[in-house]
Amino acid sequence: MPHNDISREAPALAGVRLRSPFFLAPIAGYSDAAFRSICWELGAALCYTEMVSAEAMARGNERTKVLLARDESEERYAIQLFGAKPETLGRAAAIVAAWKPLVIDLNCGCPVPKIIKAGSGSALLRDPALIGRIVAAMRDSTDVPMTVKIRLGWDEASINYLETADAAVKAGASAVTLHARTRAQGYSGTADWSAIAALAKALAPAGVPVFGSGDAASAPGAFRMLGETGCAGVMIARGAMGNPFVFAEAQAMWEGQPAPAFSEAEVAAIAARHLERSVRYMGERTACVEFRKHLCAYTKGRPGGAALRERAVHCSTVAEFGAVLDDFASGRY
Prior knowledge:
Radius of gyration: 20 Å
Oligomer: single chain
CATH class of the largest domain: Alpha Beta
CATH superfamily of the largest domain: Aldolase class I
Largest sheet: 8 strands, parallel, barrel
CATH topology of the largest domain: TIM Barrel
Structural class: alpha/beta
């Protein structure tokens, strides 16, 4: 049943009242410091890092630490860890606490085969008791609050999200995000929002907020999820790729204000700022290679986008991207 009485009070997490109920989900290859900072500036209430290997952190892998970088403009963020061993995740949580995240999140939802093969991500859904032991180990290692992100279950025959969420909460999780698909579905099919509603109702007596994920790829979709499920917040993933403006639009809808429109010139300016920050963290060569996919996403559905994307995939320097962005801003394709 729809919950049409959408709360106009933003959710609280880890003792902090957030500014809206709309978050950037952890997205591999996208949720780096530069992109998160852009989403934050456009209204995202909290942005999650890409999932970080607990094993790599525990071993002191310097390349992995790059994933934890945070731009000075990003007031707060969340770090997501993945792994399968309680002791390793406990050590990793203690290490990443030094980066001062608002919360540390345990990934129990990634359906990628190589992650599952190692017993991490969605593989954890097959053992709720293990999830509980991992959360307890993480909780005991640091004062930073723990949260978890789960799925409906391993497959249609093993829907157990209520059980996995209960195990996590009893072990000390401060919030639960439910991607309302099974591991078997991956990112296909339709997310079952009724499960988000059921979990929100189940955890309400404990005062544990539930955040929804899945098929909230637009501002209207995210707003609708709030109304239909009664969840405390919405994680936006694919809908934010190339479209960080979704957070400004969703916040405006939530506040009852007209959705802002962004001109090509404004989009180009924000994309340029995104590239500038990427260079700061990655160096020009790597940043430019990575930014090709971002600029392709920024221009998707925009006038002349196909021609701009054809040029973008061949750019290797900031100057080359600058020429494309100048043309994007001025309407020269």
